Amino acid sequence: MTTTPVPTTAKSPAPPPRSVLLDPAFLRLWAGTTASGLATWALPFVLGLAVLHRDLGAAGLGLVLAARTAGFLAAVTVGGVLADRHSRRAVVLWSSLAAAAAAPLLAAGLGRSLVLMTFAAALAGAGQGACRPAFQALTAETVEPARRQQANAAMTMAVRGSTLAGPTLTALLAAFLDVRTLLLGIGALWLVAALAPGKGGVVARAAEAAAAANAAAPEKASGSAAPEAAPGSAAAAESDAAPSARAGFRAEFLEGIREARRHPWFLAGLAALVAVIALGYSATSVALPLISRDRYDTEWVLAAAMTAYTVGALGGALVIARLRPRSQGWAAFAGLGAYGVAPLSLILPVHPAVVVAAYAVAGVGIELFNVPWFTATQREVAPDKLARVSSLDFLVSYGLAPVGLALIAPAIGHFGVTPVLAVCAAACFLVPAAAALVPTARHFARSAPAEERAG
Known about the structure:
Number of strands: 0
Largest sheet: none
Structural class: mainly alpha
Shape: globular
Strand content: under 5%
Oligomer: single chain
Number of helices: 17
Order of helices and strands: HHHHHHHHHHHHHHHHH
Distance between the termini: 45 Å
Radius of gyration: 25 Å
């Protein structure tokens, strides 16, 4: 006996993904990340006000800021391991609380105890360093892959926006509040960073629900119960692995390094970042004030160029939030290499407007790299190793920046500004171009996107 098949209806196309800015879980994470970024930026500025008010000497300022950097570098790798070992939300909470606790200690030591201030600055840096890889991994837990580029662009825009508006806001507050109160305000920002983000795991729970629904559909049709886990299945492997002892800290950190080495595009990107930050960014940070004073005889060029860089970065983040280049890695490396126009503009005797425009181009380019870079790391790296790999990113890029600053100034004094800037500009152009030739660099992925393979 035959039955008439039920006619099938054509599936309607899936609706476009909702904007990430309408997602309450992401907005909570965005608020926490923004608060941590604003607190991180504000501390050196407020300590600079303490120097102006003679509550802290110039040597003391250098010691306190060096202690913060040391705390950051010491904690960023520890934070990466902890964020992969435990709840990312818990790591963000406790590291931000540590940074918040440092603020009243800084206020108590101001003008009284440089030792206490140095300890507090190291604690603040440790909290900042430990939370950075955890925030990166928490973004991947909170936002599904289709919206992560938009989410990372929103994070970048918040940080750049606070950098742009922060000096004005802090200067206004300084007219009514003393330095100790401003330091306590930084602690309040860290409390927001600690308490605002949600638990995370939204993406994992959604995937588990979809998998359970897919598994239940054939069982419901056949009326059979779910089979027990086979000895070689993933569930059985997970249950077998549960009682096993956890590897040590060093072993887990090395496991993160091995995961990073599985992605040639990641290693190439790190090398390009080191060249641009340690050479290009360091050279321009030292040379721009000198050239603004000696060539143009005004501080306006310095202020306008730095403002243009931040505005350009905001524009770059806004563009990359919607732009999806076909060869994403190549486009990102091109954006990173665009930073070379900044040192190049300082070599030539050009109009000040050209220098300002070059810095705006450099700002656009840096975010055309940063946002796809963070998105690809969240997509390609194994989820249980994401925080450790992100910690390597922050360790290398932040760790080598002070080294570059320490070497560039003597190099300029020995060889002169023009030769040093020429070498740094060439490195900014050539190293990202070489990195783009590395296998897997074209798409920031181990394989090409499905649509290109089909083509």
